Amino acid sequence: MGIGSDLRRVVRGRVLVAGDEGFEGARTPWNVAVEQRVSAVVEVADAADVAAVVEYAAKVGVAVTVQGTGHGASAAADGTVLVQTGGLADIAVDAGARTARVGAGVRWGALSERTAPYGLAGAVGSSPVVGVTGYTLGGGLGWFARSRGFAANAVRAAEVVLADGTRMRVTAESDPELFWALRGGGGDFAVVTGLEFELFETGPLYGGRMLWDAERAAEVFAAFREATAEADERLSIWVTLVRFPPFPQVPEPLRGRIMIAVDVVGAEGITGPLHRFEAIPGVVLDNRRPLEVTELGGICMEPTAPSPARVRAELLTDFSPHVTDVLLGTAMAGAADAPGPERSIAPLALVQVRQLGGALYRPRADAGAAGGIREPYLLSMLGPAPTPDHAAAVAERQRSITAALHSHVSGRKPLTYLDAGDSAAQAFSPDTLTRLRSIKRRYNEQGTVRSSFPFAI
Ligand SMILES: Cc1cc2nc3c(=O)[nH]c(=O)nc-3n(C[C@H](O)[C@H](O)[C@H](O)COP(=O)(O)OP(=O)(O)OC[C@H]3O[C@@H](n4cnc5c(N)ncnc54)[C@H](O)[C@@H]3O)c2cc1C
Protein backbone atom coordinates (compact mmCIF):
# COMPACT_ATOMS: atom_id res chain seq x y z
CA MET A 1 0.00 0.00 0.00
CA GLY A 2 1.25 3.49 -0.77
CA ILE A 3 0.58 6.56 -2.82
CA GLY A 4 1.48 4.78 -6.06
CA SER A 5 -0.96 1.91 -5.60
CA ASP A 6 -3.65 4.28 -4.29
CA LEU A 7 -3.36 6.45 -7.39
CA ARG A 8 -3.23 3.45 -9.75
CA ARG A 9 -6.58 2.37 -8.39
CA VAL A 10 -8.26 5.65 -9.35
CA VAL A 11 -6.69 6.70 -12.69
CA ARG A 12 -6.33 5.24 -16.17
CA GLY A 13 -3.02 7.04 -16.91
CA ARG A 14 0.49 5.92 -15.91
CA VAL A 15 1.51 6.41 -12.27
CA LEU A 16 5.20 6.46 -11.34
CA VAL A 17 6.84 6.61 -7.93
CA ALA A 18 10.47 6.45 -6.79
CA GLY A 19 11.99 3.15 -7.81
CA ASP A 20 9.71 2.70 -10.85
CA GLU A 21 11.41 2.52 -14.22
CA GLY A 22 10.92 5.91 -15.93
CA PHE A 23 10.30 7.83 -12.70
CA GLU A 24 13.54 9.85 -12.90
CA GLY A 25 12.78 10.99 -16.46
CA ALA A 26 9.12 11.66 -15.69
CA ARG A 27 9.82 13.89 -12.70
CA THR A 28 12.41 15.95 -14.63
CA PRO A 29 10.96 19.11 -16.17
CA TRP A 30 11.93 20.74 -19.50
CA ASN A 31 14.13 23.13 -17.52
CA VAL A 32 16.40 20.38 -16.24
CA ALA A 33 18.16 22.82 -13.89
CA VAL A 34 15.14 22.46 -11.59
CA GLU A 35 15.16 19.44 -9.30
CA GLN A 36 11.59 18.30 -8.54
CA ARG A 37 11.47 15.90 -5.59
CA VAL A 38 7.90 14.81 -6.19
CA SER A 39 6.17 11.97 -4.37
CA ALA A 40 4.52 10.63 -7.54
CA VAL A 41 3.99 11.48 -11.19
CA VAL A 42 0.63 10.86 -12.88
CA GLU A 43 0.51 11.05 -16.67
CA VAL A 44 -3.21 11.70 -16.88
CA ALA A 45 -5.24 10.13 -19.66
CA ASP A 46 -8.22 12.47 -19.46
CA ALA A 47 -9.99 15.09 -17.34
CA ALA A 48 -11.57 12.36 -15.20
CA ASP A 49 -8.05 11.25 -14.21
CA VAL A 50 -7.25 14.83 -13.17
CA ALA A 51 -10.37 14.95 -11.01
CA ALA A 52 -9.52 11.59 -9.44
CA VAL A 53 -5.97 12.69 -8.56
CA VAL A 54 -7.14 15.98 -7.04
CA GLU A 55 -9.92 14.30 -5.07
CA TYR A 56 -7.44 11.75 -3.71
CA ALA A 57 -4.89 14.50 -2.88
CA ALA A 58 -7.50 16.58 -1.04
CA LYS A 59 -8.55 13.50 0.94
CA VAL A 60 -5.05 12.50 2.08
CA GLY A 61 -3.74 16.06 2.44
CA VAL A 62 -1.03 16.25 -0.23
CA ALA A 63 -0.67 18.99 -2.84
CA VAL A 64 -0.92 18.56 -6.59
CA THR A 65 1.29 20.41 -9.08
CA VAL A 66 0.49 20.46 -12.79
CA GLN A 67 2.77 20.67 -15.79
CA GLY A 68 2.26 20.51 -19.51
CA THR A 69 5.93 20.79 -20.38
CA GLY A 70 7.95 21.85 -17.33
CA HIS A 71 9.18 25.07 -18.99
CA GLY A 72 8.04 27.02 -15.96
CA ALA A 73 9.14 24.52 -13.29
CA SER A 74 10.17 25.66 -9.83
CA ALA A 75 11.00 23.98 -6.54
CA ALA A 76 7.31 24.30 -5.57
CA ALA A 77 6.75 20.76 -6.83
CA ASP A 78 8.74 19.20 -3.96
CA GLY A 79 6.63 16.68 -2.07
CA THR A 80 3.64 16.99 -4.41
CA VAL A 81 1.89 14.67 -6.80
CA LEU A 82 2.94 15.95 -10.23
CA VAL A 83 0.14 15.78 -12.79
CA GLN A 84 1.50 15.76 -16.32
CA THR A 85 -1.04 16.87 -18.89
CA GLY A 86 0.82 15.91 -22.09
CA GLY A 87 -1.88 13.32 -22.83
CA LEU A 88 -4.59 16.02 -23.00
CA ALA A 89 -3.49 16.91 -26.52
CA ASP A 90 -6.76 17.45 -28.38
CA ILE A 91 -7.17 20.59 -30.51
CA ALA A 92 -10.40 21.83 -32.09
CA VAL A 93 -10.31 24.90 -34.32
CA ASP A 94 -13.57 26.57 -35.32
CA ALA A 95 -12.39 28.73 -38.21
CA GLY A 96 -15.82 30.32 -38.72
CA ALA A 97 -16.15 31.42 -35.11
CA ARG A 98 -12.38 32.11 -34.91
CA THR A 99 -11.98 30.12 -31.73
CA ALA A 100 -9.91 27.19 -30.55
CA ARG A 101 -10.35 24.68 -27.75
CA VAL A 102 -7.15 22.99 -26.60
CA GLY A 103 -6.45 20.27 -24.08
CA ALA A 104 -4.12 21.30 -21.27
CA GLY A 105 -1.12 19.48 -22.79
CA VAL A 106 -1.10 21.26 -26.18
CA ARG A 107 2.03 23.19 -27.18
CA TRP A 108 2.10 26.34 -29.28
CA GLY A 109 3.73 24.67 -32.29
CA ALA A 110 0.96 22.07 -32.53
CA LEU A 111 -1.76 24.71 -32.27
CA SER A 112 -0.17 26.94 -34.91
CA GLU A 113 -0.05 23.96 -37.33
CA ARG A 114 -3.84 23.72 -36.97
CA THR A 115 -4.68 27.44 -37.20
CA ALA A 116 -2.28 28.40 -40.02
CA PRO A 117 -4.33 26.87 -42.89
CA TYR A 118 -7.13 29.33 -42.03
CA GLY A 119 -4.83 32.39 -41.76
CA LEU A 120 -5.55 32.39 -38.02
CA ALA A 121 -3.26 32.50 -35.00
CA GLY A 122 -3.34 32.49 -31.24
CA ALA A 123 -1.12 34.67 -29.08
CA VAL A 124 2.01 32.63 -29.79
CA GLY A 125 5.34 33.52 -28.18
CA SER A 126 8.95 32.83 -29.07
CA SER A 127 8.98 29.05 -28.55
CA PRO A 128 6.92 26.33 -30.30
CA VAL A 129 7.42 23.87 -27.43
CA VAL A 130 6.05 26.04 -24.61
CA GLY A 131 2.62 24.90 -23.43
CA VAL A 132 -0.44 26.95 -24.40
CA THR A 133 -2.06 26.47 -20.98
CA GLY A 134 0.82 27.39 -18.63
CA TYR A 135 1.76 30.34 -20.84
CA THR A 136 -1.82 31.62 -21.04
CA LEU A 137 -2.61 31.14 -17.34
CA GLY A 138 0.45 33.29 -16.63
CA GLY A 139 -0.64 36.02 -19.05
CA GLY A 140 1.54 35.12 -22.03
CA LEU A 141 3.55 37.74 -23.89
CA GLY A 142 4.04 36.88 -27.53
CA TRP A 143 4.63 38.28 -30.99
CA PHE A 144 1.18 39.89 -31.10
CA ALA A 145 1.14 41.29 -27.56
CA ARG A 146 1.53 44.88 -28.74
CA SER A 147 -1.55 44.67 -30.94
CA ARG A 148 -3.64 42.06 -29.06
CA GLY A 149 -2.46 42.18 -25.44
CA PHE A 150 -1.79 39.14 -23.29
CA ALA A 151 -2.73 35.66 -24.47
CA ALA A 152 -4.94 35.51 -21.36
CA ASN A 153 -7.10 38.35 -22.73
CA ALA A 154 -8.41 36.03 -25.46
CA VAL A 155 -9.63 33.26 -23.13
CA ARG A 156 -13.40 32.67 -23.30
CA ALA A 157 -13.77 29.58 -21.11
CA ALA A 158 -11.71 27.20 -19.01
CA GLU A 159 -12.59 23.63 -18.14
CA VAL A 160 -11.24 23.06 -14.64
CA VAL A 161 -11.01 20.67 -11.75
CA LEU A 162 -11.47 22.53 -8.47
CA ALA A 163 -9.40 21.78 -5.37
CA ASP A 164 -12.05 19.31 -4.10
CA GLY A 165 -12.07 17.36 -7.38
CA THR A 166 -15.24 18.95 -8.81
CA ARG A 167 -15.21 19.51 -12.57
CA MET A 168 -16.71 22.69 -14.03
CA ARG A 169 -16.59 24.99 -17.06
CA VAL A 170 -15.70 28.53 -16.02
CA THR A 171 -16.80 31.54 -18.05
CA ALA A 172 -17.29 35.24 -17.38
CA GLU A 173 -20.97 34.46 -16.72
CA SER A 174 -20.66 31.26 -14.69
CA ASP A 175 -18.04 32.54 -12.26
CA PRO A 176 -16.62 36.02 -12.95
CA GLU A 177 -14.08 35.99 -10.10
CA LEU A 178 -12.48 32.63 -10.89
CA PHE A 179 -12.58 33.47 -14.62
CA TRP A 180 -10.76 36.74 -13.90
CA ALA A 181 -8.10 34.97 -11.81
CA LEU A 182 -7.44 32.27 -14.40
CA ARG A 183 -6.67 34.91 -17.03
CA GLY A 184 -3.18 35.87 -15.88
CA GLY A 185 -3.12 34.81 -12.22
CA GLY A 186 -1.46 31.46 -12.98
CA GLY A 187 -2.27 27.92 -11.88
CA ASP A 188 -2.91 28.49 -8.18
CA PHE A 189 -6.71 28.34 -8.26
CA ALA A 190 -7.72 25.15 -10.05
CA VAL A 191 -6.34 22.59 -12.49
CA VAL A 192 -7.22 23.48 -16.05
CA THR A 193 -8.03 20.55 -18.32
CA GLY A 194 -9.01 22.58 -21.41
CA LEU A 195 -9.01 26.20 -22.59
CA GLU A 196 -11.19 27.94 -25.15
CA PHE A 197 -9.99 31.22 -26.63
CA GLU A 198 -10.35 33.56 -29.56
CA LEU A 199 -8.06 33.35 -32.56
CA PHE A 200 -7.42 36.27 -34.89
CA GLU A 201 -6.70 36.77 -38.56
CA THR A 202 -3.04 37.60 -39.01
CA GLY A 203 -3.19 38.89 -42.58
CA PRO A 204 0.09 38.62 -44.51
CA LEU A 205 3.01 38.49 -42.05
CA TYR A 206 6.60 39.55 -42.57
CA GLY A 207 9.59 39.04 -40.31
CA GLY A 208 12.67 37.07 -39.35
CA ARG A 209 16.10 37.62 -37.84
CA MET A 210 19.04 39.91 -38.59
CA LEU A 211 22.40 39.13 -36.98
CA TRP A 212 25.63 41.09 -36.59
CA ASP A 213 28.82 40.54 -34.66
CA ALA A 214 28.42 41.92 -31.12
CA GLU A 215 30.87 44.71 -31.92
CA ARG A 216 27.86 46.35 -33.65
CA ALA A 217 25.74 46.16 -30.48
CA ALA A 218 25.86 49.89 -29.67
CA GLU A 219 24.67 50.80 -33.18
CA VAL A 220 21.95 48.12 -33.10
CA PHE A 221 20.69 49.26 -29.68
CA ALA A 222 20.57 52.87 -30.94
CA ALA A 223 18.63 51.77 -34.04
CA PHE A 224 16.31 49.71 -31.80
CA ARG A 225 15.56 52.77 -29.68
CA GLU A 226 14.70 54.83 -32.77
CA ALA A 227 12.77 52.08 -34.57
CA THR A 228 10.67 51.21 -31.52
CA ALA A 229 9.86 54.89 -30.93
CA GLU A 230 8.07 54.98 -34.28
CA ALA A 231 6.87 51.36 -34.69
CA ASP A 232 3.19 50.67 -35.35
CA GLU A 233 1.82 48.37 -32.63
CA ARG A 234 1.37 45.64 -35.24
CA LEU A 235 5.18 45.50 -35.47
CA SER A 236 7.15 43.67 -32.75
CA ILE A 237 10.89 44.22 -32.52
CA TRP A 238 13.10 42.35 -30.08
CA VAL A 239 16.87 42.79 -29.74
CA THR A 240 19.11 40.10 -28.23
CA LEU A 241 22.77 39.68 -27.39
CA VAL A 242 23.36 35.99 -28.09
CA ARG A 243 26.26 33.75 -27.15
CA PHE A 244 26.04 30.85 -29.56
CA PRO A 245 27.48 27.67 -28.04
CA PRO A 246 30.54 26.13 -29.69
CA PHE A 247 28.58 22.98 -30.60
CA PRO A 248 28.77 21.27 -34.02
CA GLN A 249 24.98 21.59 -34.50
CA VAL A 250 25.30 25.41 -34.52
CA PRO A 251 25.95 26.60 -38.12
CA GLU A 252 29.65 27.40 -38.66
CA PRO A 253 29.39 31.17 -39.15
CA LEU A 254 27.62 31.51 -35.77
CA ARG A 255 29.31 28.77 -33.72
CA GLY A 256 30.94 30.06 -30.53
CA ARG A 257 30.35 33.70 -31.42
CA ILE A 258 28.81 36.58 -29.47
CA MET A 259 26.33 38.31 -31.74
CA ILE A 260 23.53 40.81 -31.67
CA ALA A 261 20.18 39.77 -33.14
CA VAL A 262 17.15 41.76 -34.19
CA ASP A 263 14.00 39.63 -34.38
CA VAL A 264 10.90 41.09 -35.97
CA VAL A 265 7.33 40.13 -36.80
CA GLY A 266 4.86 42.53 -38.32
CA ALA A 267 1.97 42.94 -40.66
CA GLU A 268 3.25 43.43 -44.21
CA GLY A 269 3.42 47.10 -45.19
CA ILE A 270 4.24 48.58 -41.77
CA THR A 271 7.89 47.61 -41.52
CA GLY A 272 9.30 51.05 -42.41
CA PRO A 273 11.15 51.54 -39.09
CA LEU A 274 13.31 48.52 -39.93
CA HIS A 275 15.32 50.68 -42.37
CA ARG A 276 17.25 51.85 -39.32
CA PHE A 277 18.77 48.39 -39.01
CA GLU A 278 19.35 48.02 -42.73
CA ALA A 279 21.81 50.94 -42.56
CA ILE A 280 24.09 49.02 -40.15
CA PRO A 281 26.95 47.34 -42.04
CA GLY A 282 28.34 43.86 -41.42
CA VAL A 283 25.10 41.88 -41.26
CA VAL A 284 25.98 38.19 -41.02
CA LEU A 285 22.46 36.82 -41.54
CA ASP A 286 19.17 38.40 -42.66
CA ASN A 287 16.36 35.89 -43.19
CA ARG A 288 13.44 38.34 -43.16
CA ARG A 289 10.71 37.20 -45.51
CA PRO A 290 6.94 36.72 -45.73
CA LEU A 291 6.15 34.41 -42.83
CA GLU A 292 3.70 31.63 -42.07
CA VAL A 293 2.19 31.43 -38.58
CA THR A 294 4.00 28.10 -38.17
CA GLU A 295 7.36 29.86 -38.55
CA LEU A 296 6.90 32.30 -35.65
CA GLY A 297 8.29 29.83 -33.11
CA GLY A 298 11.56 29.42 -35.03
CA ILE A 299 12.64 33.04 -35.46
CA CYS A 300 14.64 33.33 -32.23
CA MET A 301 16.40 29.96 -32.72
CA GLU A 302 15.58 28.97 -29.12
CA PRO A 303 16.48 25.44 -28.02
CA THR A 304 13.57 23.04 -28.32
CA ALA A 305 15.26 20.19 -26.42
CA PRO A 306 15.21 20.24 -22.60
CA SER A 307 17.91 22.57 -21.25
CA PRO A 308 19.15 23.71 -17.84
CA ALA A 309 18.65 27.47 -17.58
CA ARG A 310 18.20 30.32 -15.14
CA VAL A 311 16.31 33.38 -16.35
CA ARG A 312 15.82 36.76 -14.74
CA ALA A 313 13.48 39.34 -16.15
CA GLU A 314 13.01 43.01 -15.36
CA LEU A 315 10.57 45.53 -16.76
CA LEU A 316 12.41 48.64 -17.96
CA THR A 317 10.94 52.09 -17.48
CA ASP A 318 12.87 53.47 -20.49
CA PHE A 319 15.50 52.58 -23.06
CA SER A 320 17.47 55.81 -23.10
CA PRO A 321 21.07 56.07 -24.38
CA HIS A 322 22.12 55.83 -20.72
CA VAL A 323 20.30 52.51 -20.32
CA THR A 324 21.97 51.24 -23.49
CA ASP A 325 25.41 52.23 -22.22
CA VAL A 326 24.87 50.65 -18.82
CA LEU A 327 23.34 47.48 -20.27
CA LEU A 328 26.14 46.99 -22.78
CA GLY A 329 28.82 47.80 -20.23
CA THR A 330 27.53 45.31 -17.68
CA ALA A 331 26.19 42.61 -20.01
CA MET A 332 29.43 42.43 -22.00
CA ALA A 333 31.67 42.37 -18.95
CA GLY A 334 32.57 38.69 -19.24
CA ALA A 335 35.93 37.16 -20.02
CA ALA A 336 36.85 36.54 -23.63
CA ASP A 337 35.48 33.38 -25.20
CA ALA A 338 37.69 31.90 -27.86
CA PRO A 339 37.04 32.26 -30.71
CA GLY A 340 35.01 35.47 -30.61
CA PRO A 341 35.16 39.12 -29.69
CA GLU A 342 37.21 40.37 -26.81
CA ARG A 343 34.24 40.89 -24.52
CA SER A 344 31.52 38.37 -23.84
CA ILE A 345 28.09 38.06 -22.25
CA ALA A 346 29.32 34.83 -20.58
CA PRO A 347 28.18 33.31 -18.28
CA LEU A 348 24.87 34.43 -19.82
CA ALA A 349 23.71 33.06 -23.17
CA LEU A 350 21.01 35.64 -23.96
CA VAL A 351 20.32 39.24 -23.00
CA GLN A 352 17.08 40.25 -24.66
CA VAL A 353 15.03 43.44 -24.76
CA ARG A 354 11.48 43.28 -26.17
CA GLN A 355 9.39 46.32 -26.90
CA LEU A 356 6.03 46.17 -25.10
CA GLY A 357 3.49 49.01 -25.14
CA GLY A 358 0.47 49.22 -27.45
CA ALA A 359 -2.44 47.08 -26.25
CA LEU A 360 -0.46 46.06 -23.15
CA TYR A 361 -0.39 49.69 -22.10
CA ARG A 362 -4.17 50.10 -22.55
CA PRO A 363 -5.68 46.94 -21.09
CA ARG A 364 -9.29 46.15 -21.91
CA ALA A 365 -11.84 46.51 -19.12
CA ASP A 366 -12.24 42.70 -19.20
CA ALA A 367 -8.50 41.99 -19.32
CA GLY A 368 -8.41 39.56 -16.39
CA ALA A 369 -5.72 39.37 -13.72
CA ALA A 370 -2.93 39.92 -16.29
CA GLY A 371 -4.18 43.50 -16.51
CA GLY A 372 -1.74 45.68 -18.42
CA ILE A 373 1.92 46.64 -18.41
CA ARG A 374 2.91 50.28 -18.25
CA GLU A 375 6.64 49.68 -18.69
CA PRO A 376 7.65 50.01 -22.36
CA TYR A 377 10.36 47.32 -22.49
CA LEU A 378 11.04 43.87 -21.05
CA LEU A 379 14.63 42.82 -20.29
CA SER A 380 15.36 39.11 -19.88
CA MET A 381 18.72 37.56 -19.08
CA LEU A 382 19.19 33.83 -19.48
CA GLY A 383 22.18 31.62 -18.77
CA PRO A 384 22.89 27.89 -18.85
CA ALA A 385 22.87 26.32 -15.39
CA PRO A 386 24.06 22.72 -15.72
CA THR A 387 25.70 22.84 -12.26
CA PRO A 388 25.13 24.89 -9.07
CA ASP A 389 28.38 26.78 -9.82
CA HIS A 390 27.12 27.79 -13.27
CA ALA A 391 23.77 28.79 -11.76
CA ALA A 392 25.51 30.96 -9.17
CA ALA A 393 27.66 32.68 -11.80
CA VAL A 394 24.60 33.32 -13.98
CA ALA A 395 22.62 34.69 -11.03
CA GLU A 396 25.51 36.97 -10.08
CA ARG A 397 25.72 38.46 -13.58
CA GLN A 398 21.92 38.92 -13.68
CA ARG A 399 22.14 40.63 -10.30
CA SER A 400 24.98 42.97 -11.33
CA ILE A 401 23.20 44.03 -14.55
CA THR A 402 20.00 44.69 -12.61
CA ALA A 403 21.85 46.62 -9.91
CA ALA A 404 23.52 48.83 -12.51
CA LEU A 405 20.09 49.54 -14.06
CA HIS A 406 18.37 50.02 -10.69
CA SER A 407 16.80 53.40 -11.46
CA HIS A 408 15.42 52.07 -14.79
CA VAL A 409 13.74 48.86 -13.59
CA SER A 410 10.31 48.93 -11.97
CA GLY A 411 10.72 45.75 -9.90
CA ARG A 412 7.61 44.16 -11.38
CA LYS A 413 7.98 41.05 -13.55
CA PRO A 414 5.54 39.23 -15.83
CA LEU A 415 4.34 35.99 -14.20
CA THR A 416 5.60 33.84 -17.08
CA TYR A 417 9.11 35.25 -16.55
CA LEU A 418 9.48 34.39 -12.86
CA ASP A 419 12.32 32.05 -11.94
CA ALA A 420 13.53 30.21 -8.85
CA GLY A 421 13.69 32.66 -5.96
CA ASP A 422 11.02 34.97 -7.38
CA SER A 423 7.59 35.33 -5.84
CA ALA A 424 4.14 35.65 -7.44
CA ALA A 425 3.78 38.94 -5.55
CA GLN A 426 6.35 40.49 -7.92
CA ALA A 427 4.02 40.07 -10.87
CA PHE A 428 1.04 42.06 -9.60
CA SER A 429 -0.05 45.39 -8.20
CA PRO A 430 -1.11 45.35 -4.51
CA ASP A 431 -4.82 45.54 -5.47
CA THR A 432 -4.58 42.67 -7.93
CA LEU A 433 -2.64 40.64 -5.42
CA THR A 434 -5.26 41.17 -2.72
CA ARG A 435 -8.02 40.09 -5.09
CA LEU A 436 -6.08 37.01 -6.22
CA ARG A 437 -5.41 35.99 -2.63
CA SER A 438 -9.05 36.28 -1.72
CA ILE A 439 -10.03 34.14 -4.73
CA LYS A 440 -7.45 31.55 -3.70
CA ARG A 441 -8.90 31.52 -0.17
CA ARG A 442 -12.31 30.81 -1.66
CA TYR A 443 -11.29 28.09 -4.14
CA ASN A 444 -8.06 26.58 -2.88
CA GLU A 445 -7.61 27.51 0.74
CA GLN A 446 -5.72 24.33 1.66
CA GLY A 447 -3.36 24.82 -1.31
CA THR A 448 -4.26 21.38 -2.71
CA VAL A 449 -3.59 22.79 -6.19
CA ARG A 450 -0.12 24.35 -6.07
CA SER A 451 1.26 26.46 -8.91
CA SER A 452 4.94 26.97 -9.63
CA PHE A 453 4.69 30.34 -7.83
CA PRO A 454 2.00 29.91 -5.16
CA PHE A 455 0.36 32.89 -3.49
CA ALA A 456 0.79 33.11 0.26
CA ILE A 457 -2.69 33.59 1.78
C1 LIG B 1 12.36 28.69 -24.38
C2 LIG B 1 11.29 29.49 -23.67
C3 LIG B 1 10.61 30.53 -24.33
C4 LIG B 1 9.63 31.27 -23.69
N1 LIG B 1 9.01 32.28 -24.37
C5 LIG B 1 8.04 33.00 -23.74
C6 LIG B 1 7.37 34.08 -24.40
O1 LIG B 1 7.66 34.40 -25.56
N2 LIG B 1 6.43 34.76 -23.70
C7 LIG B 1 6.07 34.41 -22.43
O2 LIG B 1 5.17 35.05 -21.86
N3 LIG B 1 6.68 33.41 -21.79
C8 LIG B 1 7.66 32.71 -22.41
N4 LIG B 1 8.30 31.69 -21.75
C9 LIG B 1 7.90 31.40 -20.37
C10 LIG B 1 6.74 30.42 -20.35
O3 LIG B 1 5.58 31.01 -20.85
C11 LIG B 1 6.47 29.97 -18.92
O4 LIG B 1 7.59 29.23 -18.47
C12 LIG B 1 5.20 29.14 -18.82
O5 LIG B 1 4.90 28.93 -17.46
C13 LIG B 1 5.38 27.83 -19.52
O6 LIG B 1 4.18 27.15 -19.56
P1 LIG B 1 4.24 25.57 -19.81
O7 LIG B 1 2.87 25.04 -19.71
O8 LIG B 1 5.05 25.28 -21.02
O9 LIG B 1 5.16 25.13 -18.59
P2 LIG B 1 4.81 24.23 -17.31
O10 LIG B 1 6.08 24.22 -16.52
O11 LIG B 1 4.27 22.93 -17.73
O12 LIG B 1 3.71 25.05 -16.54
C14 LIG B 1 4.10 26.22 -15.87
C15 LIG B 1 3.13 26.45 -14.73
O13 LIG B 1 1.87 26.78 -15.25
C16 LIG B 1 0.85 26.19 -14.43
N5 LIG B 1 0.12 25.22 -15.23
C17 LIG B 1 0.51 24.59 -16.36
N6 LIG B 1 -0.49 23.82 -16.82
C18 LIG B 1 -1.52 23.96 -15.95
C19 LIG B 1 -2.82 23.41 -15.87
N7 LIG B 1 -3.27 22.55 -16.79
N8 LIG B 1 -3.62 23.78 -14.84
C20 LIG B 1 -3.20 24.65 -13.89
N9 LIG B 1 -1.95 25.19 -13.93
C21 LIG B 1 -1.13 24.84 -14.94
C22 LIG B 1 1.54 25.52 -13.27
O14 LIG B 1 1.65 26.44 -12.19
C23 LIG B 1 2.91 25.23 -13.84
O15 LIG B 1 3.89 25.11 -12.85
C24 LIG B 1 9.28 30.96 -22.36
C25 LIG B 1 9.96 29.92 -21.68
C26 LIG B 1 10.96 29.20 -22.31
C27 LIG B 1 11.66 28.12 -21.55
Describe, in plain words, how this protein is organized in 3D.
There is one protein chain. This protein is an alpha+beta fold and 457 residues long. It folds into two domains: 91-201, 2-Layer Sandwich (Uridine Diphospho-n-acetylenolpyruvylglucosamine Reductase, domain 3); 205-421, Vanillyl-alcohol Oxidase, Chain A, domain 3. The protein contains twelve helices and 19 strands. It has helices at residues 3-10, 23-27, 47-60, 108-115, 132-137, 145-148, 176-182, 217-230, 275-278, 321-331, 388-404, 430-443; strands at residues 14-16, 40-43, 64-67, 81-84, 91-94, 99-103, 120-121, 155-161, 167-170, 191-198, 200-201, 205-213, 235-243, 258-267, 285-286, 289-291, 309-316, 350-355, 377-384. Strands 12, 13, 14, 15, 16, 17, 18 and 19 form an eight-stranded antiparallel sheet that branches. A hairpin with a 4-residue loop joins strand 5 (91-94) and strand 6 (99-103). Residues 336-341 have low confidence and may be disordered. It binds flavin-adenine dinucleotide. Flavin-adenine dinucleotide (FAD) is lined by residues 66-73, 85, 104, 125-127, 130-131, 133-135, 137-138, 140-142, 186-187, 191-192, 302, 416, 451-452.
Number of helices: 12
Number of domains: 2
The overall strand count is 19
CATH topology of the largest domain: Vanillyl-alcohol Oxidase, Chain A, domain 3
**Content-based structural category:** alpha+beta
Question: Topology of this structure?
Answer:
Layout: H1 3-10, E1 14-16, H2 23-27, E2 40-43, H3 47-60, E3 64-67, E4 81-84, E5 91-94, E6 99-103, H4 108-115, E7 120-121, H5 132-137, H6 145-148, E8 155-161, E9 167-170, H7 176-182, E10 191-198, E11 200-201, E12 205-213, H8 217-230, E13 235-243, E14 258-267, H9 275-278, E15 285-286, E16 289-291, E17 309-316, H10 321-331, E18 350-355, E19 377-384, H11 388-404, H12 430-443
Parallel strand pairs: 2-4, 3-4
Antiparallel strand pairs: 1-2, 5-6, 6-10, 7-11, 8-9, 8-10, 12-14, 12-15, 12-16, 13-14, 13-18, 17-19, 18-19
Helix pairs in contact: 8-10, 10-11
Bound molecules: flavin-adenine dinucleotide.
Flavin-adenine dinucleotide binds at residues 66-73, 85, 104, 125-127, 130-131, 133-135, 137-138, 140-142, 186-187, 191-192, 302, 416, 451-452.
